[in-house]
Amino acid sequence: MEHRIARRGSSYLVAARHHLQGDRSLRGEVARLLAETPVDVDVDAHARPVVLVHGWIARKTSWARTIANLQRRGFDDLHAASYDVWREDLHRAAARVGDRLREVADRHEVDQVDVVAHSMGGPTVLAAMAADSAVADTVHRVVSLGSPWAGAPAARRARLTPVGPLRSAAQLAPGSTDLACLRAWAATRMRTPWTSVWSAADELVPGWSGTTLFGPTVTNVEAPPLGHLELLLSRRVVELIGDGLRASDAVAA
Description:
- By secondary structure, the chain is of the alpha/beta class.
- The protein has helices at residues 2-20, 26-36, 64-72, 90-107, 121-131, 133-138, 165-170, 177-188, 207-210, 235-246, 248-252; strands at residues 50-53, 78-81, 113-118, 139-145, 194-198, 218-222.
- 45% of the residues lie in helices and 12% in strands.
- The protein is globular.
């Protein structure tokens, strides 16, 4: 038990360091991680661009290890979408992310992109799709990690003082009307295949919340027992991401 706690604590420190890095250091960090274990040249390249959307009070640099692990599995056309919870609530963040998804698609002259989202990134992407049919049409497949579909218990206190980043946190609290509307939209109107990955050991998003997204195109997948930030560091989770994204053509058909 003590060894597991120490290992998890070390993982949190690594993830926190990634969060605090400047954006310019992301490529260097990815290159360093790839140098530790070279890319498998035998893997098949993924057909579509993949956009990664971070969680609450995080940065796109939090994806450094995930990007390196995805590149090892043949996902080399990777992009990050960012938003600012200090100045934007869930829906304004969704508008920014929606613009980024369409920008990536237009730049690559493709009709659709795939999306990987962590924590609040999941509801943000879903809100962008629900608010704009053009964004929904742009998204081919989504894999979310540890997203609080029925709310995160720690966010309850944010309702007392919903200012700054606590505005979006309050929208992620249990009983949130925003989350309820998003779940209803996913269950009745979403046509995009969505894989929702959750962990029984997630200390921020418990299983009863992580498994609450449902609908004809939603698949819930249990990850190994990992903490909320450990989901960004695990190669096993990257395998689940890869399986979800590569299965998209068969699901969409």
